[in-house]
## 1
Amino acid sequence: ERLSRMAAGWFYLSCLALGSLGTLCVLFTSYWMRYWHGGFAWDGTVFMFNWHPVLMVAGMVVLYGAASLVYRLPQSWVGPKLPWKLLHAALHLAAFTLTVLGLFAVFQFHQHGNIANLYSLHSWLGITAVFLFACQWLLGFGVFLLPWAPTWLRSILKPIHVFFGAAILSLAVAAVISGINEKLFFSLKNATRPYSSLPSEAVFANSTGMLVALFGLLVLYILLASSWKRPEPGIMTDRQVGLQAPGGGRV
């Protein structure tokens, strides 16, 4: 019983750390854009661009990561699976909506300023992650949410779906980190204190990138921890048993 409580404690401690990190990622990105780059607008100017990093971090990283972990909650292990499928799909759709708005902000800014699109490694990583995200959501909706797909097809596609879920998050984190770096190179190129001298903006933005990396790693850790996966029917590890309280209840 003591081991069971420890297992439950570690799980929910990881979730608390994840929620705190995700909130900090969005707040730090918003503060960076407001304090050092003048805030936000929706007018095609650089202030519209400032929405891009905030929306991409909030959508492609934080909300996407949270949506990926729906089936790791012990409450989802018993009872009907459909409500959890709907929550999983809805959170991912919300994440995709924020992502599309983030892309719209940067493309409008580039069009307004006559700036080329999709030439940097950052943009290639980002657009690849978004394209795979769209395919992943459509595949999940068509195969796992709608009732038409046979069990054998779901069994074949499930490992692929899980792999690309983790791969898309990894690509999104890489795109965010490279985007932070790219923005700093542009904004501090002709500054009094260049990027190489680590002015306060560089320290703050680099720290934001580290928070995003930590968030992504923690999500991947929880996703890959076999003892926290939704058990197959009739199969449950010791820790999964531990995450359910004696007497039929759950912790």
Note: The two ends are 12 Å apart (CA to CA).
## 2
Amino acid sequence: PDVIIEAQFDDNDAEHGQDHLQDTLTDDIKKLSLDTGEKGKAAGVTGVHRTKQDDGPKVNDPRLLPDEFLQRTAKVVYILEKKHSRAATGFIKLLADRNSELFKRCAMFSPVDHRVPRVYVPLADCPPDFVSKPEAYSQMLFICRIVDWKEDSNFASGQLCKSLGQAGEIEPESEGILTEYGVDFSDFSPEVLECLPQNLPWAISPGELAKRRDLR
């Protein structure tokens, strides 16, 4: 039968790595082998005989199976281009384990966008009274930029760039979105402003209007 075996990742798979995935795939292949064998026995009872030439490959060895029975796997070997700005909008809070050494050095940054991982940020980047009054900053939006993510850590490392203001207000939320997507929203420089017409009021001449497409 045309059966495709798919090994799906969950949190435990991510922890145990490729070896766990391979074991899972091998177990599924063995189950398929047993099911096929049982069907063969049932067919033999009804008088259908099979020769050695009709037998398929030994499914105990995954390398001998046809491609349609295997789930392809791969690993990232090189980051060609970083598309994300590594900046995120979110909130800061104290770590849960107050007795750990990490509690004395770092706070936890939780991004609003759940596709971005949580980040350890230095307490030195946080407001001076954050440790004594963390509740005062529970609804304060911050911009954090991820700088590293070690292989043996569940969370990335980053730096707080700035405080945006209260969550839910238009200006802080808008600035956070523009920063995340790497949009430069700073004021135009004098050199750019000098390119604009200086004699005001300025109007498009009839000749220009005739050869332009009007999208107003």
Note: Confidence is low (pLDDT under 50) at residues 7-11.
## 3
Amino acid sequence: SEETVTLMWSFVVSIYSIGGLLGSLSAGYLSVRFGRKKSMLIANIPALLSAALMGLSQLCGSYEMIVAGRLFSGVCGGLALNVHIMYAGESAPRKLRGLIAITASTAIGVGKFAGFALGLRELLGVEALWPILLAANALPALVQLLILPFFPDSPRYLLIDKKDKEGCIKAVKQLWGDSDHMAEIDDMMAEKEAICGENAKSVCDLFRDKAVRWQFITLFLVSSCMQLIGVNVV
């Protein structure tokens, strides 16, 4: 019936956010357990799986594959976005850190525009080609799988989480050149000493921490406004 089709269509659209929540909740654990770079590589697994499921859904005659593919795509988005911001911010020199971190928002904007453009009827938004459109997220995942292994891991992760000072210095030189970067390394050493012995904070601890209360409220309001501007409805 029409009501059932509408329900399933709504479920296909909204389950992406559920996957994004699952991916975001796992980002902290995976980024510490495997490192920033490996976590970003792991994020490509659900991306490729989602592309395969959605791309083959018409051939298999299964709308359930689209639902599962959207879920895995959301997991990839939630995981990759959070880990990317950590990796970019920790790998950039201090004077470029803000500029590098904002590339995540820029990439999201470019990706949305590319999705809208590819969805035009003149391109892939037709009945015969929509499986290719849904599987298009495999392309950036494959590019990252080929390129990212040549990059070093986050210097901060190597020094603080892995306690590998030599690896940290090697990563800093590979990322920032052969100049003297001991000031930045000393800052990371000071941070390591400051957090030594502290347990990882939970989400509840974040709510109770008065030191970041206003930053938390600001981010909460900005994120809420982003959900209310209508882009999701469109």
Note: The CA atoms of residues 46 and 218 lie 31 Å apart.
## 4
Amino acid sequence: VTLDVQAACRDTTVTQELLKEGFHRDLLVKVELGEDAGGCAVAAQMRLPPGIYVDPYELATLQQHNLTKAVLFPDVIDLEAPEYMARDLLLLLFLQQDARCPRCFRATVPVHARYHRPAEGTEEALVVLESPEVLLCCCHSHLSAECWEPAEVDTPCSSDTTSPCQWHSTKHKPAYEESVLRVPVGLREHSSLVCALTLLTTGLCSGLILAAACKYGHFL
């Protein structure tokens, strides 16, 4: 029976790509459905590890200009927290249909890397992005019961409405690929040198400020 179901259900393919360089990137998600889903909302649900985050304020601005539609859980996060003090985030990214391909959907969302602890023997930390789960929300049509099952997602079919709708996910998990973000980190063996230089610079600047205050300041 399992073989028959997998034969009848064409795999949904997912690709994701990190664009740009540095700490501020764009995450491009592309989905090709295994069957026609006309009239359905298509979304990618992804869990972001502590080493990467989406800025909720930036996301709100993009949504106001209809550039990106997404729901972030939680919607309030500490943007300045380092990787070792942050937690996972859940992002539901609504995808737009490709005009040249009825089964193809895509969307881009800005992501940002967090600062990591200094490492020993390496100048970079690896942040692994698992492949997103593809979700469909069909309020006016029906999906094949052999290929899709109800998903526990408490979010409307669109970021523009509050009406409830049932989301569905694929029953069998296709082999998706992970993406890896390489984040530059400091070397732990340089910590003594960095601390000494920081202390020296702080003392020098403090001395200059104190000298200027004594020379030009007016004290009551």
Note: The chain has two domains: 13-186, 188-219.
